[in-house]
Amino acid sequence: NQEKLKGKHHAPGSKAWFTAIKERKSSAECIVEHAQYTTERTARAKLWSTSFKSIEHREGMVKDLTDFQNHFHKKITALTNRRTVLHAKLDKGKSDSISNIEILDQSEQEFAQLKTKQFISKSTKQLERLEQDFVQFKIDYFSVMNRNADHYRYKGYTSDDTKELELRPRKRP
Fold first, then answer.
1. pTM
2. Fewer Cβ neighbours under 10 Å: the N or C end of the chain?
3. C-alpha 93 chain-centroid distance
4. Domain residue ranges in the chain
5. How many other CB atoms are found less than 10 A from the CB of residue 85?
6. Comparing C-alpha atoms, which of 85, 82, 90 is closest to residue 119?
């Protein structure tokens, strides 16, 4: 620093000269990177109709909500598909038993009816269990999301400037 103030220069090609050039270059690159980051973040903020400061919060919340919806969809779809399959099995078992019983003799008919009753009973129990699962189906949002993520740190925070703005006495409703 003293050398800069006194106007001393490094000899071109010396080790100190190369070091000074590298520092200048890295400083200029950092300034350009910061300008690009600011420009990109401002463009994203305009796209989301929000401010430069809150864009990362907004994008984080959108990402988390999308992930939660996808997780919920995956879980509920599995339950509804199982219910559809069980209903189809139950309907198929009833219709097969009625159509096949007419061609069988007496002992085979009794055996087929017994098997059909057991099948229907088993399917009905599975269906009842599945309906109980539907009733108990609840997914807590934070069981899927990370509560410590950066975009949750400002939740519920209102700045003093905003509070002052909201409490203006002559503000129109």
1. 0.53
2. C
3. 41
4. 10-53, 55-147
5. 13
6. 90
